[in-house]
Amino acid sequence: MTLTTYINFKGTCAEAFEFYARHLGGTVSMMMRHGQVPVPGGVGPDWADKVLNASLHIGGTTLMGADVPTAEPMRSAYLTITFDTVAEAQTAYDALSEGGEIFMPLHAEFFAEAFAMLRDRFGVNWMILGHARQ
Questions:
Q1: pTM (two decimals)
Q2: What is the pLDDT of residues 65-119, one digit of tens each?
Q3: Sign of dihedral through CA atoms 33, 36, 42, 45?
Q4: CATH of domain 5-67
Q5: Where are the domains of the chain?
Q6: 9 neighbors 71 (Cβ within 8 angstroms)
Q7: Which DSSP letter does residue 14 get?
Q8: How far is it, in rounded angstroms, from Cα 90 to Cα 86?
Q9: CATH class of 79-132
Q10: Which residues of 76-107 are buried (b: 16+ CB within 10 A; e: fewer)?
């Protein structure tokens, strides 16, 4: 069995996935645009360059996504990413928080030397942990 997270974006999927690949060390393995489908439908011609389906391999899992005109930012779910070091967590925090909304700044907690909660500029919620305590 495989569990995959699928995120809808309101027109920024390509930018988000390329950003995540660059700053979190992932690899975009597939990105199909709405304009590439044999039978157009569902969105207007102004969405031809937007993403119909994309896959990003990151942290031992796959994150999938698409651009959907009615997409809204995440509210109650978080992508959680755990790093071996505080320095790695800090680097990810700096990248993901830029232009986003910080719910809890990076700080020490009883369960990790570094922990933060934020929504990035693409509307995706993240929990970041660095050197989690066992």
A1: 0.92
A2: 999 999 998 889 999 999 999 999 999 999 999 999 999 999 999 999 999 999 9
A3: positive
A4: 3.30.720.100
A5: 5-67, 79-132
A6: yes
A7: H
A8: 6
A9: alpha beta
A10: eeebebbbeebebbbbbbeebbeebeeeeebe
